[in-house]
Amino acid sequence: MSFKHPITRRLFLGSALSATALMLLPGKAMADWVNFNFLRKKGAVFPYTLPEQKWREKLGDEGYEILRMGENETSGTSPFLRNYKKGVYACRGCGVELFASPAKLMTNDYPTFREPIDAKRLGLSTDFGIILPRTEVHCKNCGGHLGYKFLVDGEGASMWRYAINGTSLLFISA
Length: 174
Prior knowledge:
The protein is α+β, with helices and mostly antiparallel strands. The chain is built from 3 helices and 9 strands. The protein has helices at 9-24, 27-34, 52-67; strands at residues 87-91, 97-100, 104-105, 112-113, 122-130, 132-139, 145-154, 157-164, 169-173.
């Protein structure tokens, strides 16, 4: 078997060194380098906006890091994990109603929903923060980072699930 372009020592070593260098980049540097979050794109404009200082005052440190900077809360820490009340989950940044309580699933990591009230209220972007692509979910009204959308196989059908940071949400009782 002959190759059209034989693998030379230089090609092999160059490829190996490049792959190693990428793996050694700190996670945050790698995430900033390959993140396509539309919040970070220059000129992203949303109907609801506040100056950065007002966002910090409104959301607090943890809320600001999650909604405005795209971080995630620690798994299993959301007070909404065991919320069994009837009502609506809204964006903490701007108050837009996003998920109804009947769509909530019982999980142990993040508040998870089957479907939004209206898919047009959510923005989606590709996030490479963990190297592999995943679908990041944002509020279309204020641009706040909410969580992620995953495809789950079960019972012979594929279904979408929205794993949302509880810190990104407000609960409005019915």
